Amino acid sequence: MKMTEENSLERLNVTMDDVNAMIKKKEEIEEQIKAYYDVLEDGVGVEGPLVDAEGYPRADVNLYQIRTARHNISCLQNDHKAIMAEIEEALHKLHAREKAKREQDQAEATEEPMEQQVTLPPPFAQVDTVTEGSPASAAGLKVGDEVIEFGSVNTKNFQNLQNIASVVQHSEGKALRVTVVRAGQKVQVNLTPQRWSGRGLLGCNIVPVQR
Questions:
Q1: What's the pLDDT tens digit per position in 31-86?
Q2: Partners of 113 in the beta sheet?
Q3: Is 127 exposed, middle or buried (0-12, 13-18, 19+ CB in 10 A)?
Q4: Which of 163, 139, 116 lies closest to 20, judged by CA?
């Protein structure tokens, strides 16, 4: 079963839409787990005994409902663990594919005549603020930078800022390649989302560019 799933995932041409669908599924599972925990909180909790002091089934609680909730929580936690692993692997595949594409593009660019003007893709977002001492500041991002690539998000697949937020959330501690246009020049930086003394994982504010 495991080998079949791995082979299936290997053949899957993962897109940002796939990742967003997985994240939505993860959130739905989390909502279900919370609902079952709420059921248990109204009764005996997750670990409370289901028999009285004399060893008889308790008559003051709905035993079937509690056993069902506990069983479902256990199953959903396994599902949650599995979907988190799928999200992580899908993001890795996106990053790897984008890296391979960049390397291919760079290799092709070196073969083009030097005098040919390189046309940059239109930006989809702009860096609005950068806090000193933040991961964004350490990476070299500057106010006014126009973003044309943020990890696996680019001009072609960008839909809204949630795309960037999803990549950041699932890439904590991992370097992301960010490409910006600064003073008409293409600039690439390695940005690692991580905890710091300020808010969030980046320490910068990114706003969408109206297209």
A1: 998 988 887 876 666 666 666 666 676 766 667 787 888 889 899 999 999 999 99
A2: none
A3: buried
A4: 163
